[in-house]
Amino acid sequence: MAIKKAWGGRFKKKTASSVESFTESISFDQRLYKYDIEGSIAHTTMLAKCNLITNREKDTIIKGLKGILKDIENSKLKLKTEHEDIHMNIESALVKRIGDVAKKLHTARSRNDQIALDLRLWARDQIQEITKVILNLQLEIITKAKPVWQGVLPGFTHLQHAQPILVGHYFLAYVEMLERDRTRLGDCLKRLNKSPLGACALGGTTLNTNPEITGKLLGFDSVFDNSLDAVSDRDFILEYAAALSIISMHLSRFSEEWIIWSSQEFDFLDIDDSYCTGSSIMPQKKNPDVLELIRGKCGRVYGNLFSLLTIMKGLPLSYNRDMQEDKEAIFDSSDTVKECLSILTELIKKTTLKLDNMERSCSKGFLDATVLAEYLVGKEVPFREAHEIVGKIVGVCGKSGKELSDVSIKDFKQYSPLIDKGVYNILGVKNYIKQFKSHGSTSPKSVQKQISAWERKLKKLMV
Ligand code: ARG
Prior knowledge:
By secondary structure, this protein is mostly helical. The chain folds into three domains: about 25-105, Fumarase C, Chain B, domain 1 (Orthogonal Bundle); about 110-150 and about 165-360, Fumarase/aspartase (Central domain) (Fumarase C, Chain A, domain 2), CATH 1.20.200; about 370-460, Ribonucleotide Reductase Protein R1, domain 1 (Orthogonal Bundle), CATH 1.10.40.30. It has helices at about 15-25, 25-30, 35-50, 55-75, 85-100, 110-145, 165-190, 210-215, 225-230, 235-260, 290-315, 325-350, 355-360, 370-380, 385-400, 410-415, 430-435, 445-460, and strands spanning about 150-155, 160-165, 195, 220-225, 270, 350-355. It has a two-stranded antiparallel ribbon. Strands 3-4 form a two-stranded parallel sheet. It has a two-stranded antiparallel ribbon with strand order 5-6. The two termini are about 55 Å apart. About 35% of the residues are buried. Arginine binds near residues 85, 319 and 323. Arginine binds next to helix 6.
């Protein structure tokens, strides 16, 4: 026997089973059960306050909903494809449980405002969860940097040696990136926290309802002002998916860097065995697969964002069933990014930095060329000229295999008579690092200050 549909009044034929399986969303929207029930309880409370149902009816419905919540959590309620989605599954379970009074629950409500509500409640929780996971990662990075912040390594542009930087400075850059990610989610949350419940199908209702009541009960900052927009809007999902894409891009950049750094060519770090995998044929291999997968998963997170943008682009107002396709994409992005963030946190903790190799690598590539040019600026040589002079010296050193600090004063003087013995106090990466003084630079003072400031800030935010 086919199940009677809640919307079946006008239908003379039963739904084709291929249509049932094509249109169902229960297989993936079941994860919204908690929010759906929470929304229904608030809605029921509002209906009673507005005298659209009696207090007794309200109590019966709420008790029934709470029972269903328990049953779902204990896997006692069988969710059925014939009931299409989470909303209809819960509603039909309620009818079965408490009888006809359950049929009053959907007064002044549509699945259109119901799903918009469920998604907002879900996204709100997810954002709060991911915010914490980002905080954890930021703190792990600071913890990693703290004991080794004074180490030096080559800073790169174009993946070519550029200027020496402190290990602490390197790590702080990622803390900044992640801070933008974290606060971007916070911005998203502000716009998202508006209740759509009460918009009904699209035009509102002729019944005397009060969306302010449900909005407040569900912890929203405000309530929709236009019912048509309230049921059509998925910007909050797009924004969340975009924020997740940027996070994923950041994690991918970090992963790419550490994959390169763990190569035999760089050998700047050693990822713990427990966070690597091997080769089925080459016995010597230890591969950074976790990092590669974090980099790879960025593809699906971007893909989800594009699916969502594309789903929405052709939709006339208001609700269209296309919008059901938003769920799998955003669920996947949210799950994927959360997992990437936490596994990366573990991996960083378990990785050994090879500080000696980092420092040794600093002797290559004339990392101290810019400090020599700035030294000449200090002697009143115009910067462009100083650049030219140092460029020539570097060119010659490159051929003879010398570093800048190996050049004798006599030879320096051939390029500029202004160079004197004091030059040896600024050449070499360790000397150079001490010379940095500009705001936010890799100067030891600035890096040390930033590490303690971040540590303080993050620990405060953790509680
Ligand atoms: N499963 C639907 C979705 O996810 C719920 C809303 C259905 N509304 C409707 N009028 N068919 O979008």
